[in-house]
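Run log // design_07
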């Protein structure tokens, strides 16, 4: 299996995992992975308006780092947010956008989510948050990429959460 095929399979597997664990519902959420294809950064991302529980490998969209579609189909409406984060942090290999009921509940409240992971030093006691911006907007992409410079999780107030990973 090629790096491209591995990443496409990972995007589908993670998508189905998120849906199966009820971290997304309906057609909400999106997943992407970055890989190198002959010296070019390529992003494999879930398509727009497709349930993560039903996405298939042949439906994954490939985009170059400049946003040019390399395959047929329409990528997630949050493609520019994914691209902005990948451009800001070249060590990021994957991005997961969920609508976890718990994170979404906190995003609509005035309460913050405490960091409780046990992997390394906790620098910030709470998960990073940004104010609400319209989904798919340039403002959201810029604010999210900026907020994730030194973070690995981001809560968009009154909406959702993003998680960055070096690899799946």
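design_07 sequence
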């Amino acid at each position: 299996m090629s790096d491209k095929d591995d990443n496409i399979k990972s995007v589908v597997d993670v998508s189905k995992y998120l849906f199966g664990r009820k971290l997304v519902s309906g057609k909400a959420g999106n997943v992407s992975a970055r890989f190198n294809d002959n010296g070019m950064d390529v992003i494999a991302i879930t398509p727009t308006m497709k349930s993560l529980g039903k996405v298939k490998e042949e439906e994954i969209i490939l985009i170059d780092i400049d946003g040019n579609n390399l395959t047929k189909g329409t990528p997630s409406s949050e493609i520019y947010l994914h691209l902005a984060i990948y451009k800001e942090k070249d060590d990021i290999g994957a991005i997961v956008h969920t609508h976890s009921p718990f994170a979404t509940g906190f995003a609509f409240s005035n309460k913050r989510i405490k960091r409780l992971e046990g992997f390394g030093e906790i620098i910030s006691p709470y998960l990073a948050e940004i104010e609400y911006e319209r989904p798919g907007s340039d403002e959201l992409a810029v604010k999210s990429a900026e907020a994730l410079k030194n973070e690995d999780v981001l809560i968009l107030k009154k909406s959702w959460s993003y998680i960055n990973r070096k690899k799946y």
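The chain has four helices and seven strands.
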